Amino acid sequence: MSASAVVLMIVAMVLLWGGLVAVILFLRARPETGLVEPSELVAQDEAREQQPHPTRDT
Fold first, then answer.
1. pLDDT value at position 32?
2. First vs last Cα of the chain: how many Å apart?
């Protein structure tokens, strides 16, 4: 491989792996809150079942 190809490969690896590390650190510092409880999902599904099926009238 030529020197420019090696440099480009290293830049790409740093971007990809660095982004992965940054996301992991971000999510560890600020974990996602406000997760929906399974019972709420069931209630939403049951409410959606009662609604008529949406249609397109074009």
1. 73
2. 58
Give the C-alpha distances (Å, rounded to integers) separating 40 from 14, 31, 33, 43, 44.
Answer: 41, 21, 15, 5, 6
Residue 1 CB contacts under 8 Å (≥ 6 apart), including other chains: 9
Torsion of Cα atoms, 26 then 30 then 31 then 35, to 10°:
-130
Distance CA 14, CA 8 (A): 10
Structure tokens at 10: 């290293």
- pLDDT tens-digit readout, 2-58: 999 999 999 999 999 999 999 999 888 887 766 667 788 888 888 988 888 877 776
